[in-house]
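re: ur msg from earlier - yeah i can do the adenosine-5'-diphosphate complex, just paste it... oh wait u already did. ok heres what im feeding in:
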Amino acid sequence: MPKTSAKKTAKAPVRPGLRAKTPAPKRKVLFVASEVVPFAKTGGLADVVGSLPRALMQLGCEVAVVLPKYKNISPEKYKLKLEIKDMAVPMGMGEMSTDILSTRLGDTHGTVYFVRNDRYFDRGGFYGTPEGDYHDNAERFAFFSRAVLEMLKSLNWYPEVLHLNDWQTGLVAAYLKTLYRSQPPFDSMKSLFTIHNMAYQGLFPKYILPMTGIGWEEFRHEKLEFYDQVNFLKAGLVYSDALNTVSERYAQEIQTDEFGHGLQGVLKARSTDLYGIVNGIDYDEWNPATDKEIPAQYTAKNHEKKVASKKKLLQEQGLQFHPDRPVIGLISRLTDQKGLDLIAEIIEEFLGLDVQFVVLGTGEPKYHALLEGLKSRFPDKLAVALKFDNRLAKLIYAGSDMFLMPSRFEPCGLGQMIAMKYGTIPLVRATGGLADTVENLSPDGKKGTGFVFENYRSDELLFVIKRAVEAFHQPKLWGGLIERAMKKDFSWDASARKYLELYGRIIKGH
Ligand code: ADP
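and the outut:
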């Protein structure tokens, strides 16, 4: 049965698009994030903060990145060196001590800094365990945010823009506009806050406020108060000089009741400062022409070599190879956001088709149980890997014929862009970045890069799956789809230029 009624795309006002082709002025930028590839990753945020700085450096910017030093980040593997020892960070009525470590960002001249405090970050997870979030996340990320500003003082390195990402860094913007406002050069330092997902807000009881050092005068509806709680994401939205999110469509959607997660009013009030810039893909990392994790490299010109990956994938997963049977891949957090509830509604009918379905992901226990339970009933149709595995992800991107991403909402989504690069045809819902990056196959079959359905309804999902399976059996049509998908350019360069222009606007105070 349909889950929700049909709703047309949001028509909220949005800022005029940024021009991609501007001369590239050199800027000095610090990225602040809780995840950065290759050091720490649970999702797309990590990919973005791992790639965008490189693209900006190629445009002549001076860029550094800072994240917490989590337990999994090996000092030996990443050649971390001690940059600052025992730096004092004000917390509540007292101080906490931290070390700052550093390394190079890959083969670039950019620096990655790590805020080390073992009490907060020397743990198994980044935000919590499968049982739930850590109870002291407010303290952990308030500390991280404050430590970032103290680090800049100690380094005596002052970027023009602090590029903040998601709720874990929202307090940096608040600190800049409150406690650090009277401390030059912080008074002229600008902040850009990028929203990677409105659903995660960092919502905490108000008693945590004194620990942050921010005064009660900021605990107001127009500032960081949200229904009598402290909201770190809202802090980012309210105090930053400009905001952006990771696709133009999502920038419109989050100003509506359906997608704003309660903060649509705040976003509407800031709509003149809110931009949409689609993420790119790091083609050094995601490229079937050079990918060493797949058995045979290929390009748009010889994409028939994909079949070697398909065979290897199926063999590894214990499924039989049938040339005429499409393999549909899913690599995702297994949550409602990603459309798992829709898939669950139609899974039996779906697996009744002549298809094979390979799932890689972790998430809600009910979806783990559902998928595990179905494995014994569809032994030659379904393979399930309930883990996080970069190597297997690449094999699925290359070895599948189609990639399923029926999200309820999707700020940008990287999976569909990676899939297209690997000639794997995306089946997506028209929301957020999926709507901006996947073009539905035209009725004559000559245009388009995937299959798109409009409404968040399981019958619509099943319909596009069936349509895609039919198309798969028309080799000429399917070959054209693969070529068009593989030729799409989702590299970072165009988006990095838009960020540069946005930094310029912020610095000039426009
Ligand atoms: P989100 O950030 O909302 O989870 P995105 O599509 O923006 O979704 O990014 C997800 C990223 O994480 C992609 O690079 C995807 O390949 C990767 N990913 C998701 N789940 C897994 C997994 N279980 N194993 C390996 N990579 C995964």
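cool cool. The mean pLDDT is 94. ping me if u need the other ligands too
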